């Protein structure tokens, strides 16, 4: 009976270096300190090796990480969140009650996901992504022609490919040795979308502030002639 022993150390003794634990107390009382020192040396050497090889590994796998990050970014930039948010308004303008519209979008989304589950192994991940992006592009391009019906087409196209396939594809394209960190980078890029969007909007607001400060004159309490002179100080007034 080995109390406090690691199960792997019991079944395969000598596979791993011993440490100061209950297992060492029972199985081996000699040379524990020297073995611990050797273990520390091995750990330090492994750490140094990882620090040296990690940049090379990331450079080697950077194209795969870029593909995963770009897929998630394109998923967000497709406009699916805006379509979900404004779908009730679009259906309401077409005379459809909001509760019916929300239920219809949910049913279409669920149906598309079920279809994707069935076709995923038959058509492949890439085929579903290509068809999904093309369907979304056609639906969004014709949105002004038949808004209510093509909202459902856009959601169906998203649910049949870009929605479920992207996450599954990310779990398959990354090697196991970098999967955790690569997925973390992709998720960070996914959440950077709103940050970039609102940063751009804030930048335009700042540009508007600077533009108004430099070019717009105050019109309160002034006549039209005074305003014109302020805007065109070197021009002659023409009546």
TrEMBL record:
One cellular component term from this protein's GO annotations in UniProt: membrane
InterPro entries documented for this protein: GLUT, MFS_sugar_transport-like, MFS_trans_sf, Sugar/inositol_transpt, Sugar_transporter_CS
SUPFAM superfamilies: MFS general substrate transporter
Chief site of localization: membrane
GO BP terms: monosaccharide transmembrane transport
Keywords: Membrane, Transmembrane, Transmembrane helix, Transport
A Pfam family matched in the record: Sugar_tr
GO molecular function: hexose transmembrane transporter activity
TM region(s), chain numbering: 58-80, 100-120, 127-145, 151-170, 191-212
Membrane topology according to the record: Multi-pass membrane protein
Domain of life: Eukaryota
Subcellular locations according to the entry: Membrane
Similarity field: Belongs to the major facilitator superfamily. Phosphate:H(+) symporter (TC 2.A.1.9) family.
PANTHER family found in the cross-reference section: MAJOR FACILITATOR SUPERFAMILY (MFS) PROFILE DOMAIN-CONTAINING PROTEIN, SOLUTE CARRIER FAMILY 2
Record-given protein name: Major facilitator superfamily (MFS) profile domain-containing protein
Organism of origin: Lactuca sativa (Garden lettuce)
């Amino acid at each position: 009976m080995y109390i406090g022993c690691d199960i792997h150390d019991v079944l395969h003794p000598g596979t791993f270096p011993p440490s100061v634990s209950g297992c060492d107390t029972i199985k081996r009382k000699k040379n524990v300190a020297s073995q611990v020192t050797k273990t520390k040396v091995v750990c330090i050497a492994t750490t140094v090796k990882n620090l040296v090889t990690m940049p090379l590994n990331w450079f080697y796998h950077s194209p795969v990480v870029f593909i995963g990050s770009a897929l998630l970014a394109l998923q967000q930039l497709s406009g699916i969140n805006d379509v979900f948010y404004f779908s009730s308004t679009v259906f309401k303008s077409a005379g459809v009650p909001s509760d019916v519209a929300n239920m219809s979008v949910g049913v279409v989304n669920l149906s598309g996901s079920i279809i994707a589950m069935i076709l995923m192994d038959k058509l492949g991940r890439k085929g579903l992504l290509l068809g999904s992006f093309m369907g979304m592009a056609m639906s969004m391009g014709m949105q002004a022609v038949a808004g209510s019906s093509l909202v459902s087409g856009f959601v169906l196209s998203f649910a049949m490919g870009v929605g479920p396939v992207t996450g599954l594809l990310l779990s398959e394209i990354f090697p196991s040795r970098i999967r955790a960190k690569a997925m973390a980078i992709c998720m960070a890029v996914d959440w950077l979308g709103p940050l970039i969007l609102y940063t751009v909007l804030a930048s335009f607001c700042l540009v508007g502030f600077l533009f108004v400060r430099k070019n717009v004159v105050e019109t309160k309490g002034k006549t039209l002639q005074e305003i014109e002179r302020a805007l065109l100080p070197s021009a002659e007034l023409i009546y």
